[in-house]
Write a structure and sequence with these properties.
Layout: H1 17-35, H2 39-51, H3 60-80, H4 84-95, H5 107-126, H6 130-143, H7 147-160, E1 181-186, H8 192-203, E2 206-207, H9 223-229, E3 234-238, H10 244-252, E4 256-261, H11 264-276, H12 294-304, H13 306-322, E5 328-331, H14 332-337, H15 339-349, H16 356-367, H17 382-386, H18 389-397
């Protein structure tokens, strides 16, 4: 804990000498009490000193900071003593503290002040008072937004079950200014590039990849890009599971995803083709992949890549059950079987529309792009006929780790 020690100084006006002398004494005693961890005494002394000063006077904000540190220590002690009601009462008092004096424009000071609220939030989090922890994290972000503050907020929101707010991530835009964000959360090799290109062509929306980097990285939403494009109409295609952070950012920025899946056996064979054509270069097994025989390659994909598919389906299914987001489930097989009707349904999901004839024309144009859409063989049932029974059984066994999830969407 950082404790500030300072001198208030004496006023030039002798009429205020006694007042400032009293304040100085209270401050000195408050600092000593804080060092001794006599939290209740520190709170009393700093409160008394603050009441004798105005916002314009030097070190007003420093006193407020020390009072916040005292509240944090006192709340910790109250939790340890089992006095939960008093701990919550002092939280309300702490949340009312503001930097209103000369330090309001000092970013370093605001960062320390916000950090004290983050520390207070961790006290409530560790004591399983998650809604109070959310309040502290949001208070900290309102004072000084930093990456660490969002880490703590993500954890607190997840445990409390609360929805994220736009203000949790940005104050540069209000909800009414948000664009429409078509978001395809997809498993690899599910015609997602084709679908994304088609929707970009139909809507005229901007094609935006909202990740820090691809390659070996998980396609997690990248907040700086999301902030930068929040006001635009966009189409995004990413291989991302429903992590807490992804779901919270989608809630905040009003994003509802199309969740695109595919038959799990066919996925294996399509992955094999994809890696054989060079995708192994962005994998963690790229050093040895080309030296493996085909059966070993298939086993490698089953053991190392296919579990991700099960986690993908399970994570988005949980989001649907918890009603955390509106979701449009889409199967690769349904998309391929009737592209125009599928596209119309997707557009309807986002409150958009297009004439069927226009959709059919755009489909022809997109399909003519060839390499850009990266269509593989796409033969339905290829995995069922090619994979051995032992390989298929190993794949099926992954479902037992998610007994609450319906995997019929991926052919199980």
């Amino acid at each position: 804990m950082k404790r500030l020690n300072y001198s208030i100084g004496l006023a030039n006006d002798k009429s205020n000498l006694n007042l400032y002398s009293t304040v100085q004494q209270e401050v000195d005693l408050g600092v000593q009490a804080l060092k001794r961890e006599s939290a209740d005494m520190a709170v009393t002394l700093f409160q008394s000193a603050i009441q004798k000063l105005t916002v314009e006077q030097p070190f007003y904000d420093h006193l407020v900071h020390n009072l916040l540190l005292s509240y944090k220590l006192l709340i910790e002690q109250l939790f340890n003593a089992g006095d939960i009601d008093s701990a919550n009462n002092f939280l309300r008092a702490a949340l009312n503290l503001e930097i209103r004096g000369e330090m309001a424009e000092d970013s370093d000071f605001r960062k320390r002040f916000a950090g004290a609220f983050q520390d207070l939030g961790l006290v409530f989090f560790k004591n399983m008072h998650y809604e109070a922890s959310v309040l502290c994290c949001r208070k900290a972000i309102s004072i000084y937004s930093s990456p660490s503050s969002h880490v703590n907020l993500t954890n607190s929101l997840a445990m409390s079950g609360q929805r994220a707010d736009l203000a949790d991530f940005t104050t540069d835009i209000i909800r009414e200014q948000l664009g429409t964000h078509i978001f395809i959360a997809c498993v690899p090799k599910s015609a997602s590039t084709f679908l994304k290109n088609l929707l970009v062509s139909l809507t005229g929306y901007r094609d935006v990849f909202m990740v820090y980097a691809a390659g070996q990285n998980e396609h997690e939403l990248y907040l700086p890009t999301l902030r930068e494009t929040a006001h635009l109409d966009t189409v995004t295609q990413q291989h991302c599971r429903a992590s807490d952070a992804n779901v919270q950012m989608m809630q905040a920025f009003d994003i509802k995803p199309v969740v695109l899946v595919r038959n799990i056996f066919d996925s294996v064979m399509s992955l094999l083709d994809f890696h054989d054509k060079g995708a192994f270069n962005s994998s963690y097994f790229r050093a040895d992949y080309q030296s493996l025989d085909e059966e070993t390659k298939i086993d490698l994909l089953i053991d190392n890549v296919i579990p991700w598919y099960f986690q993908f389906v399970a994570s988005w299914s949980l989001v649907e059950k918890q009603k955390s987001l509106d979701i449009f489930w889409l199967g690769y097989e349904d998309l391929i079987a009737d592209k125009p009707s599928t596209i119309q349904n997707i557009l309807k999901f986002y409150g958009l529309g297009a004439a069927r004839r226009g959709i059919e024309q755009k489909i022809k144009e997109t399909e003519s792009e060839g390499r850009k859409i990266r269509f593989n063989k796409g033969v339905k049932g290829r995995g069922e006929s090619r994979l051995s029974e032992s390989q298929k059984e190993r794949i099926r066994r992954f479902a037992k780790y998610h007994p609450g999830t319906d995997f019929s969407r991926i052919g199980l």
